[in-house]
Amino acid sequence: MATVTTTLYDKIGGAAAVEAVVKEFYVRVLADKQLKNFFDSTNMDAQTKSQIDFITMALGGPNNYNGKPMKEAHEGMGITEMHFDKVATHLVETLAWGGVSQEDIDTIVGVVGPLKAQIVEA
Questions:
Q1: Cβ distance 100 to 108 under 8 Å?
Q2: Treating both helix axes as pointing N-terminal to C-terminal, what angle do 44-58 and 14-30 enclose, rounded to 10 degrees?
Q3: pLDDT at 122
Q4: Which of 76, 102, 116, 119 is 20 to 30 A from 110, alpha carbon to alpha carbon?
Q5: Looking at the domain assignment, is residue 89 inside a domain?
């Protein structure tokens, strides 16, 4: 009997779930006084699409991500550990808002957490 492998992308609800979570995530980030200025000159439609593509790929869904590598994308922005941690908190809270289980949230944090070294500059 063949086993069926379900990706985390599929497990949390696929494209619709990722899109809803990413859109809500940016609502929260842009409402955060300590983070919103990072997006002052950002085309948020393009940013949202890129983030949807990145999260989709990171969770085992279709790889349509063609953005810059993390280090290059965040270079020169002055992102500190505090900024990264605030974004991570918004991500965790948004995933919970989206109905993602704590076990899956922990797995997702394990996937994106190591990116900290590529994003934090100061």
A1: yes
A2: 130
A3: 66
A4: 76
A5: yes
Mean pLDDT estimate for the chain = 93
Burial of 12 (0-12, 13-18, 19+ CB in 10 A): buried
Dist. CA 13–CA 99, nearest whole Å: 10
Range of the domain at 55: 8-119
The end-to-end CA distance of the chain, in Å, is 52
Q: What is the CATH number of the domain that holds 36?
A: 1.10.490.10
The whole-number average pLDDT for the span 79-104 is 96
Q: What pLDDT, in 10s, does the model give residues 47-87?
A: 999 999 999 999 999 998 998 898 999 999 999 999 999 99
What six digits make up the tokens of 29? 């980030």
Most distant pair of Cα atoms in the chain: their distance: 54
